[in-house]
Amino acid sequence: MNRERYAWATASxxxxxxxWEALPRLLPLPRGARLFFATPSEIAVALVGLLRGGELQQHxxxxxxxxxxxxxxxxxxxxxxxxxxxxxxxxDDLFDPFVTALNATPRIVWxxxxxxxxxxxxxxxxxxxxxxxxxxxxxxxxxxVRNADPVLVNVVRSFxxxxxxxxxxxxxxxxxxxxxxGLRLAIGRAILGVVVGEFFGASRGLGYMIAAAASSYRxxxxxxxxxxxxxxxxxxxxxxxxxxxxxxxxxxxxxxxF
Amino acid sequence: MARRRLVLGGFSVVAFFLAxxxxxxxxxxxxxxxxxxxxxxxxxxxxxLGGRLWHDxxxxxxxxxxxxxxxxxxxxxxxxVMGWRRRAEWALDPLLTALYASPLIALAPLLIIxxxxxxxAKALLVFLLAVFPFIFNTYAGVRCTDPLLVNVVRSFxxxxxxxxxxxxxxxxxxxxxxAARLAIGRGLVGILxxxxxxxxxxxxxxxxxxxxTYRLPEMxxxxxxxxxxxxxxxxxxxxxxxxxxxxxxxxx
Lengths: 258, 252
Description:
The complex is a heterodimer. Chain A starts with a helix and ends in an 11-residue tail after the last helix. By secondary structure, chain A is mainly alpha-helical. In chain A, helix 4 (55-87) packs parallel to helix 7, helix 6 (111-118) crosses helix 7 and helix 7 (122-146) runs antiparallel to helix 9. Chain A has helices at 2-26, 31-34, 40-53, 55-87, 89-104, 111-118, 122-146, 150-158, 163-199, 206-215, 219-247. The longest helix of chain A has 37 residues, at 163-199. The model of chain A is unreliable at 253-258 (pLDDT under 50). Helix content of chain B is 81%, strand content 0%. Chain B has helices spanning 2-26, 37-49, 53-84, 86-101, 108-115, 119-143, 147-155, 160-197, 203-212, 216-244. By secondary structure, chain B is mainly α. The longest helix of chain B is centred in the C-terminal third of the chain and has 38 residues, at 160-197. Chain B has 10 helices and no strands. The two termini of chain B are 20 Å apart. Chains A and B meet through helix 1, helix 5, helix 6, helix 9 and helix 10 of A and helix 1, helix 4, helix 5, helix 6 and helix 8 of B.
């Protein structure tokens, strides 16, 4: 039974690739369509070429830098703020309208303003990554802190524990699974920020590479860039998911909420 | 308690805009890079009275509605089949999970270059981003169907069709509403990116054009309009969620 499952999965992954590869050989495409088309084999060749020339590594380094600084900043701001808003009622009341409004609005809308303020270099992308990633972290940390078991909190208090001990022994460990779930969402938003930020007014980075390849009709290079991005975000997402699964082993099987 | 939250929240919003206004009235500032709330308010008023913002909004709304509608029409049946048919699940789950986890926004340049700067490319982008929440939430909803109810329908001689209309679909509704909330956010990203990239009209185009021409009050007006739309849509769906699935309201 399990073997059949793998067979279906493999077939569904391979079949589209085969059709994609074979189609232009069987049906001659019109010249116009050829411009936007690259078969998997052509994409693989382009990918090897980009790696050999060192071009891909260059773009990757820039994108990775933007991603890491932005995500690091959002962790540094989102986690403490989430804990604070989760524990201090009046601060939560004060900040709530801003958090709700900013969280509901796609953060990409700030990109033109950020480019005005921070220029077309690395920093406008760092800021858009930060804006995208900080809210899932903040909101999830907040929820995790709010859901701290009041019985456990009272136990620590009854035994004369300080507010700091309550945080360290009950609130923070309980919030950890929420934080990791927030991190998984934040990674997705951060990659979105890097790519979209680099589409507009950049001269380096994977997003730039994709946009530049698309506008010069180099479909093979463009797909190679998309492929690299997909591989990176899959690897990141699934490693965080693995951590998440370990941390939430005790939880009953809940429906996944993305 | 709820009243205190409202009062403090309202106070902080007013205080924020007041502080912004007062601060910029006191210091000299470069109008190319900064603006004041009073100027933004004036820009909003002008845009609403006679500007192009309404037109831009309807253009964006069209692409959004087409793409979102398509996502609903495709996503729900795919999710149903995946949840109810084991082989469909085996075949589709790995492929669709991989696509859901990847940054499909990276395909935006290709879509716009192939499908043109009109509505089609943006609708396609919205569809591509919004379809996955519908697929996976419907799928999860079907998986959570109570087997007891299924057995009851079968015991009383119900057909496969009865199962769908009497048990599966009603059970899936709250999951679909939750999916809509996620899909709205993703769809708005699709519209914005599409219109930033290449467009001649639309809200995203307006915002990026105002930014390019250093017309900050107008740009903030556009951002404000988008924020109002996004908050409005999200809270409407949240309210709907509270009606169809009152036990889920605590979740964000």
